Automatic annotation (TrEMBL), chains A, B:
GO molecular function, one term: peptidase activity
Superkingdom of this protein's organism: Bacteria
Matches recorded under SUPFAM superfamilies: Zn-dependent exopeptidases
Identification of the protein by name: Dipeptidase
Organism (species): Phragmitibacter flavus
Signal peptide interval: none
Length: 442, 442
């Protein structure tokens, strides 16, 4: 590899493009502008599109009839670098140590994004053109939930029309093991607020005579699961598509994920739905979680009050074919039917996103697998992931296409954490993968 | 009434003497120092005694042989003022609105304490001396369970020897109705901490595979009661002394406490132990309450995490003849026997205090009733209260004397809550009561 690709990546990394922090707006915009200029210099027709937030970079080669059209997505914004004191090297000054590039954004997502850009540049230098019609779409708001991306897709639906989307923003199961993520869980959020007395009460004076909202919210949360990890909401599992037998078998071969989950989480023990393995629980089974619970006195020591209200922030991870709206309706019915005495129960609906599943044995899925095999020298791991990537669902809904998730990050790349890093070998593999992917899709 | 007593009370109220919060240690000590100086200025021999926590103020007039010795107790510390945004006036700046003094500590206990101090000052000015040997004992740790008071009583047992204790730190059943409290509930506190993963986890990546501490703490809290308001801890009711028949009858005559409880609390409905009236539930039945619950994300909106730990602050109100230590042992056994999977449950023991019951028809009980009748113009109501004043039991155990509880607070004085207040009329009545009480006991 010439040193130019790494130098380009380093240049992009030095922009402190923290999208959530308006103090960094200048750097965020500058990163988008630099990318636009870089792509233009490579011969693409490139533009920076304004949005109500950070701009979107769109670039295209010359689209010719009869060729496949591939949309390559990435994001140039990054998470905040704080806590800065935990970084061993400056957060926005890339440095290579033991074969890894350390910098905020190295893995999420600048390193993976630039692997594709530099792969394209090399192909263009060596071959003069690409085998497909390519549309590049890089946004600057992924780390704040892509609030402007779906409206942008809708407004530019024809310009962005394509046959398939490709993204490198997920993980590899192990170093050197090509990994194809063909499914993601969806999400449905709500907040339960339990209201009791009009004011916080002295628990000596009134205790025993009125309902305590913290007790009642506990009853609601406790009633979400049995001790076998099963969600007790009526009808919760009705629409769940069972795992295919090939998935269960394929995932069994991925190694001892139980030991890895224990080690990564530091939990005293595993706990989940009876009858499912650790990977099945995380990738293919729906969950109910309380992400926050609170009520009454929160400080040090004790305060003998009955708090006037209590809350529980709930989220449900969904799998095909659960519908977020249907699940939230069932959750509401489940919570209200308890008819808890002496309190009022309110449910506030939050954000939702559908689960995603594509067939890895479809024609494009097989093309992705071939490209990964050529790049890494062995058939790829076929996995789902437990998190949610709402933009994948947006591509499905607005553009009507599947997304190929070909991740280049390792579990210890510290995405979102101090000392984020990306192996130089993965950067190089990503450049190679880009060429094989476009050839396989062509 | 001259304005001096109110001015003195306002000065004491301005010290933000929040005993549970070490950030307020300076103000707490300053409140004690101010009281010592005030009492010294009135001619008492007064001293500030150091303890491992906040200091104790002790003051005496000249004790003469052959007179009754009365110990007057009060506390100069207050509850935290949070949530500050719910106060209509600044929490530590007293202001009189519609005949009530609004300030943290106005009713609990600075207003009631200063009514006695100012009553004494007036008697001394008008009569030159008091009819009894008086010992004043004001502490700064009542709101955190008086951890150092009992050791202090033991260490100063001879200096504090007396015939009876008098305290105004309880309630009146209605404005203008003198009220003699002959019983109090005890208390036993503990904090449950449920620990899961070593770090907060992404609920998409790991949700479903590890136990969520917020879910598990909810199961523990939910398991404390059934939906008939009965506490489910094994053996919880074993030692409970039933109400006497005269009490049930006397309390029935106190009016419609259910309507009053609904109106004072603003609760959507009453809820408590089946088979008992509102007053019986609050004054003579034991309870289990969660005073605070917390875990995971506490901010606005949502954050899809599994929090590493969760807590519940529990308190149990006790009645004769429940033993706090016995109850906490039973609670611990109850919590641990759930054997919740995937988490560690820790129970941290907090402060305790035994329930109190004296005979209101004893000689000193009758003296107290006479003083109340002279002050308010009618025979007093005879009640118990639901709160706990652990020091009453300490006076019984260490000094061997009963305590006369002659409260001056009204049900809507908002003790422990935002907008705490105290009627100026009650402050004045307390000054009068002080004189009648010492005369009746003399």
């Amino acid at each position: 590899m010439s040193t130019q690709p790494l130098e380009d990546l380093f240049t992009l990394l030095r922009f402190a493009s923290v999208s959530t922090d308006s103090a960094h707006d200048g750097a965020t915009r500058a990163a988008g502008e630099w990318l636009r200029n870089k792509l233009e210099g490579m011969g693409f027709r490139a533009a920076l599109h304004e949005t109500p937030g950070h701009p979107v970079v769109v670039a295209k080669n010359e689209h010719k009839p009869g060729r496949q059209t591939v949309l390559l997505y990435g994001h140039y914004d990054v998470q905040p670098a704080e806590p800065l004191e935990e970084w061993r090297t400056p957060a926005f000054e890339p440095v290579v140590i033991d074969g890894r590039i350390f910098c905020r954004g190295a893995t999420d997502n600048k390193g993976q994004l630039m692997a594709h850009v530099c792969g394209l540049e090399r192909t263009l230098l060596e071959q003069g053109e690409l085998p497909v019609n390519l549309t590049i779409l890089f946004e600057g708001e992924e780390e704040i939930g892509s609030p402007n991306l779906k409206p942008f897709l809708e407004a530019h639906k024809e310009e962005l029309a394509c046959d398939v989307v490709a993204i490198s923003d997920t993980g590899m199961v192990a170093p050197g093991v090509g990994t194809f993520t063909y499914g993601l869980r969806g999400i449905a959020c709500c907040e339960v607020v339990v209201r009791g007395p009009a004011i916080d009460l002295h628990s000596g004076i009134f205790g025993g005579a009125v309902a305590n909202p913290a007790t009642m919210v506990s009853k609601l949360v406790a009633g979400l699961h049995d001790l076998n990890g099963k969600v007790l909401v009526d009808g919760f599992y009705d629409a769940v598509r069972p795992l295919a037998e090939w998935e269960r078998q394929a995932w069994k071969k991925l190694g001892d994920s139980e030991a890895e989950t224990l080690s990564l989480t530091g939990s005293p023990g595993l706990f989940g739905e009876a009858g499912y393995s650790d990977l099945e629980r995380r990738w293919a089974r729906p969950t109910a979680e309380v992400n926050g619970i609170g009520g009454g006195y929160q400080g040090e020591g004790s305060k003998t009050v009955i708090g006037r209200s209590a809350f529980a922030k709930l989220s449900f991870r969904l799998v095909p074919d659960q519908e977020p709206g249907d699940i939230l309706a069932k959750v509401q019915a489940h919570l209200q039917k308890q008819q808890l005495p002496g309190v009022k129960v309110e449910v506030q609906i939050g954000h939702v996103g559908q689960a995603y599943l594509m067939d890895p044995m479809s024609a494009r899925g097989q093309a992705a697998q071939r490209a990964l095999e050529k790049t890494f020298g062995a058939p790829p791991a076929l996995i789902r992931e437990g998190g949610s990537i709402p933009i994948v669902q947006a591509f499905k809904e607005v553009l009507g296409v599947d997304t190929l998730l070909l991740g280049l990050a390792l579990p210890d790349c510290q995405a979102h954490a101090p000392n984020e890093n990306f192996p130089v070998a993965n950067f190089e593999a990503g450049m190679v993968l880009n060429r094989h992917l476009l050839e396989a899709l062509a």
